[in-house]
Design brief:
Elements (H helix, E strand, L loop, with lengths): L5 H8 L6 E3 L2 E7 L3 H19 L4 E5 L2 E6 L9 H11 L3
Antiparallel strand pairs: 1-2, 2-4, 3-4
């Protein structure tokens, strides 16, 4: 999958809620009710989505917040596949 240009990335970010570019990745924090358990439940909910796409985000859990960072490591940057995964994760709430 081809890398997206800066302009393409900016345009696609406008179509998502609260995602931002962080270097060669797109990233968003998801704050969950239920503290740590709610955060881990969210990670468990997004796992099947990532597995289905065979595209796995970098995740960080800090108490009630999950930081999701998505990049296509094999391409060395941001591709359309990253935005597809972001949309699917976003749909989880």
């Amino acid at each position: 999958m081809a890398l997206l240009s800066d302009k393409e990335i900016e345009g696609r970010l406008e179509q998502l809620t609260d995602w931002q570019r962080k270097g060669d990745a797109i990233e968003r924090d998801f704050k969950r009710d239920g503290g740590f358990v709610g955060a881990v439940d969210f990670v468990n909910a997004l796992t099947p989505v990532a597995e289905e796409m065979n595209h796995h985000p970098d995740l960080s859990v800090s108490w009630d917040t999950v930081t999701v960072s998505i990049s296509t490591h094999s391409e060395g940057g941001i591709t359309g596949n990253d935005f597809e995964l972001a949309k699917r994760i976003e749909a989880l709430g």
